[in-house]
Amino acid sequence: MSDLKQETKQSAAKVAATMKDNDSPPPLIEVKEITKKYGTNVVLDQLSFDVSPGEKIALIGPSGSGKTTILRILMTLETLNGGRINIDGRPLWHKEVGGRLVEADEAHLHEMRAKIGMVFQHFNLFPHKTVLENVSLAPILTKNIPRAEAEQSAMELLETVGMAEKAGQKPSQLSGGQKQRVAIARALALKPKIMLFDEVTSALDPELVEEVLNVLRKLGEETDMTMLLVTHEMGFAHDFADRVLFFDGGKIVEQGPPDQIFTNPQEERTQSFLKKIVGAGRTI
Ligand SMILES: Nc1ncnc2c1ncn2[C@@H]1O[C@H](COP(=O)(O)OP(=O)(O)OP(=O)(O)O)[C@@H](O)[C@H]1O
Ligand SMILES: [Mg+2]
Q1: In terms of domains, do 281 and 143 share one?
Q2: What is the pLDDT of residues 128-148, one digit of tens each?
Q3: Is the CB of 126 under 6 A from ligand 1?
Q4: Which domain holds residue 242?
């Protein structure tokens, strides 16, 4: 290779490297002016936000502010009345047909849903199936993964959530915290890019909360999964999240890094919400 060619190649590599450093990746989730109404009750009001790949987001805010609703819309469990959502650059609730956006059909929703997993406050495990079956069944049935392979992956996930030795038990033989850890493993078994957690510790006895938070901490630290988490555990949200969104009245009133939101909130509504939470004995 001539010196000139060598130099050109090197500077092209340099430019590419600089672009890589400067260009932030395109958002994995784009929520654009979403509106959701129940009758005349406007639950989400022109709500917009983006989430980058790998970002950990905590959603906080008073009861009824729309936190569960936005997660359920992302999980396609709830329809929307206006606005758009893109996941991984593709419309979630719409489909492009001949350059036009039309409402998505079930096949499109099914395909998009595979990118997202959700864990709820109540675990909804299959009561008559073992822990191992609860985690391995969906990959076998929906992804045609051979049973032996699905069970091996399920055991690895149960290991991750500290539940491997309970693989043969039924949900009724487990504590609430253990059930919730199995529910987390079950959602992870479908290998989603995005995980949604809706108050996953709020139905648990206080002494069981920490074991579930530890699993979430581990997932946050050891995986590059994108995670959105609704919680009233403010101390946990502070440590876990890259960014905190404070919801009120179906809008994001304030957002920022946890240090800013929890120690120096700018909006009066954020300040009064956090004061109330601390007053209720939840530490930050
Ligand atoms: N299926 C439904 N039918 C009618 N109204 C609903 C329905 N689901 C939610 N809502 C209303 O939507 C609003 C937002 O509810 P959402 O469950 O999203 O709040 P939230 O922020 O998750 O509250 P919480 O902290 O209590 O869980 C509330 O006013 C609620 O009453
Ligand atoms: Mg809720």
Answers
A1: no
A2: 999 999 999 999 998 899 999
A3: no
A4: 51-115+193-284
For residue 186 the two structure tokens come to 């079950």
Q: In terms of residues, how long is the chain?
A: 284
Instruction: Give the total number of structural domains in the chain.
Output: 2
∠ CA 33-36-38, rounded to 5°: 165
For the entire predicted model, the pTM comes to: 0.89
Q: Is 241 in the same domain as 271?
A: yes
Closest CA to 140 of 155, 151, 126: 151
Q: Is the CB of 250 under 6 A from ligand 1?
A: no
* Residue 68 Cβ contacting ligand 1 at under 6 Å: yes
CA of 68 to the centre of ligand 1 (A): 7
